[in-house]
Design a protein that fits this description.
Largest sheet: 5 strands, parallel
Strand content: 15-25%
Number of helices: 10
CATH architecture of the largest domain: 3-Layer(aba) Sandwich
Radius of gyration: 19 Å
Structural class: alpha/beta
CATH topology of the largest domain: Rossmann fold
Number of strands: 14
Strand order of the largest sheet: 2-1-3-4-5
Shape: globular
CATH class of the largest domain: Alpha Beta
């Protein structure tokens, strides 16, 4: 039987660079498994994400969530109380609202879990790090996690700076005034890039979410050498069982893993009925090429944490290398 799968993804708009990556991952999965995949463009608009999935979910066997925590939160609200299971590959900060979301990626609060180990590998003092809190629920969760990791690693009391996207230079000035040598946090890609340019001009190092993907090097060039970022999966890591397109980043890997996990849940359930899938997904303890997978009773990921990469080299040799990985 051919699986019918649907997804609403950011094929245009502010999240499009990552949404198109996720679409490539889902297409790779569907092509390898012979699934009938319907992709709709939510234009990076949370309301459109919610409208599309609410209208499409009832006619599908597998439902994939959108890219971005804002769109995913809107979908969670729209799907509250409905039976369909939503495989969440792209929203790292999504409060539960009674929807059946199953997280594939590690949560935003754990993006910087390995920060103390990463700083130790770089020979840096946690006391010289400032945390930036970017706008939105995702940025706040990332900042909270970074601050907690620093506190656990000897950097208690790290200054927390709120980013005004209209004035990234102000954030850089505040970091200098606080005596910081590195600013860590992150949010939306465009905010991270704007802050990154301000930090470069100020001579400060960074650890930002965007530094986990090639976009940082493409946009900021050699200045990112020594900068760090979280990544759910890094090219050159464990090979996926289904080939991804060249230059795939972790949003593509997350989406592919979501397809593989949805398949596994259906096998364990012996059914495509939403209740059976929901029960099987929450009971499942397994691994994908991303790492370990397990969720709690509400579908929150409990097993997987992102790794941390560092940019090294210059020019044609500029690349990311794994600096810290979870045990």
């Amino acid at each position: 039987m051919t699986l019918r799968a649907v997804a609403a993804l950011a094929l245009s708009g502010r999240y499009a660079p990552m949404g198109r990556q996720a679409a490539a991952g889902l297409r790779a999965w569907a092509g390898a498994r012979g699934a009938a995949l319907r992709l709709e463009d939510d234009r990076s608009e949370p309301g459109e994400s919610a409208r599309l999935l609410a209208s499409l979910a009832g006619g599908a066997d597998v439902v994939f969530g959108p890219y971005g925590s804002g769109p995913a939160r809107a979908v969670a609200g729209a799907m509250a109380g409905r039976p369909e299971v939503i495989w969440n590959h792209g929203g790292a900060a999504v409060p539960r609202a009674g929807a059946r979301l199953v997280d594939v990626l590690g949560p935003a609060e754990r993006y910087w879990r390995g920060l103390p180990g990463a700083l130790a590998a770089l020979g840096e003092d946690p006391a010289t790090v400032a945390v930036v809190r970017c706008p939105g629920g995702f940025g706040a969760a990332v900042a909270d996690g970074a601050r907690a990791a620093l506190a656990a690693g000897g950097g208690a009391g790290a200054p927390v700076l709120d980013l005004d996207p209209a004035d990234p230079d102000g954030c850089a000035r505040a970091a200098l005034a606080a005596g910081a040598h590195r600013v860590v946090g992150g949010g939306r890609a465009e905010d991270d890039l704007a802050l990154g340019r301000a930090l470069l001009a100020s001579g400060l190092a960074a650890g930002l979410v965007v530094c986990g993907v090639a976009l940082a090097g493409d946009e900021l060039g050699d200045g990112v050498a020594g900068w760090i970022g979280p990544a759910q999966w890094a090219p050159g890591g464990p090979a996926p069982p289904v080939a991804l397109p060249p230059d795939s980043e972790y949003p593509a890997a997350q989406a592919l893993a979501a397809g593989l996990l949805a398949e596994r849940a259906a096998e364990l359930a012996g059914s495509l009925a939403p209740d059976a899938i929901w029960d099987a997904a929450r009971a499942m303890r397994t691994r994908t090429f991303l790492g370990p997978f397990a969720v709690d009773e509400e579908g929150r990921q409990t097993a997987h944490s992102p790794l941390i990469v560092v940019w090294r080299g210059r020019g044609a040799t500029l690349r990311r290398a794994v600096l810290w990985r979870p045990e």
